[in-house]
Amino acid sequence: MDAGIDVAGVKRSFGAVHAVREVTFTAAPGRVTGLVGPNGSGKTTLMLMLASLLQADAGRMSLGGVDPVADPAGVRRLLGWMPDSLGAWPSLTAREVLVATAQLYDLSRDAARARADELLALVDLSALAASPARVLSRGQKQRLALARALVHDPRVLLLDEPASGLDPQARIALRVLLRRLAAEGRTILISSHVLSELEEVVDDAVFLVDGRTVGGDRVAAATRRVRAWRVRVPADVARPMDAVRLDVAAALGRAGDEVGVDRRDVLVPFTDEAGAVAGLRALIGAGLPVVEFAPAVGDLEHAFLDLGAEPAGPASPEAVAPPASSPKPPRPTSPPEPAPPSSDVPPGQTPPANRPDDGSVA
Ligand SMILES: Nc1ncnc2c1ncn2[C@@H]1O[C@H](COP(=O)(O)OP(=O)(O)OP(=O)(O)O)[C@@H](O)[C@H]1O
Ligand SMILES: [Mg+2]
After folding, report:
1. 311-349: pLDDT as tens digits
2. Is ligand 1 within 6 A of the CB of residue 44?
3. Beta bridge partners of 62
4. In 3-state terms, what secondary structure has residue 251?
5. pLDDT over 90 for what percent of the chain?
6. Which of 3, 55, 146, 168 is the one with CA 20 to 30 A from 67?
7. How far is the CA of 13 from the centre of ligand 1 (A)?
8. Cα separation of 71 and 60, whole Å?
9. Fold of 227-295
10. How many CB atoms neighbour CB 330 within 10 A?
11. Is the minimum distance from the CB of 17 to ligand 1 under 6 angstroms?
12. 227-295 has the same fold as 5-213
């Protein structure tokens, strides 16, 4: 692929720590690709290698057709990099940070000033333009880091945890901005372990577990597995939650212990969406006043929790589309593996997102 990100067989260790064991994926232009993995799974290490800031031990990478190892200056010209913390120049003002960065990318002083003001407005920091970067709050620093990544109008964006520390309004603004940047044809790779955050912005997802990308078939199998749905039927003094739970079970023809309760909601496992549709019809048909009916966790989270319970498999040659945000089914990209048994019903019994270490990772 010419304009996107293409990564094959990339590895990087720090002594005995295998931070990135085997990473293979592509991220397409015009799309937002989520890099999803628990703490320590290698997301930042991978992004540093893509940004030409860390050497890979093995493998091949290309961003917009440029190899960051062979041509780091070329990659930096086309790449916007937002690290997981703002870093440098705490005594410069927000505007000065952007002007200085723009000048490093060869903009004239006047053009750099104009660009800085444009970007400060874009990330809603104009009022703090003259404040030193060190006094900015965490969320304000994140916004400045995003503005800095956009200074030279890059075709490829690498954003490491861009939403961390942002308030809800700033998160929405970030989401809208990322969708717009992708619609303009840019390639965007965004890391996070906060899946609800990614759910609404990504087109494709690359799952990293213990430094390895997870095969598309395994992700597809994980997303297909039985999942819990949240059913809200108002309880009151006459019908407490436990009675409502039994009403729901009876309406669905299930045994009482197949249906759980999580605070105000009843949790019901369904194998697929068709089953959920039939279940909703049965509940309404039984006269239950259903006010809410939805999957208990988002699609990315569902896949991720399920993957977290399995051993890491072979590398995926391509990103897979998460089922929620893409009309297309996930693109299967490696030989199918047998599906392990269901593991997230009811959600109160979901496996932990972090797999236990295999002993070789500190
Ligand atoms: N410079 C380093 N020296 C030694 N070990 C490192 C170094 N950088 C990263 N590691 C280790 O490599 C592994 C992957 O770290 P990395 O920062 O890439 O994870 P991450 O997926 O970004 O995690 P998080 O979600 O917490 O940001 C971790 O076990 C980490 O301790
Ligand atoms: Mg990280």
Report:
1. 444 444 445 555 433 333 333 233 333 333 333 333 333
2. yes
3. 6
4. helix
5. 53
6. 146
7. 10
8. 13
9. Alpha-Beta Plaits (3.30.70)
10. 23
11. yes
12. no
Domain residue spans in the chain?
5-213, 227-295
Pick from 49, 33, 17: nearest CA to 316 = 33
Q: How many CA atoms lie within 13 A of 14 on its CB side?
A: 9
Tell me the DSSP string of 256-273: GGGSEEETTEEEEEESSH
1-41 pLDDT, tens digit per residue, is: 457 999 999 999 999 999 999 999 999 999 999 998 888 99
d(CA 109, CA 103): 7
Record the tokens describing residue 165, joined without a space.
């520390």
Instruction: Find the angle CA(26)-CA(24)-CA(360) to the nearest 5 degrees.
Output: 145
Kindly state the tokens that stand for 244: 């409502």
* Amino acid of residue 308: G
Best mean pLDDT range from 132-141, 180-189, 303-312: 180-189
Name every residue whose Cβ is closer than 8 Å to that of residue 223 and which is 6 or more positions away in sequence. 299, 302, 303, 306, 322, 323, 330
Domain 5-213 classification at class level? alpha beta
pTM of this structure:
0.76
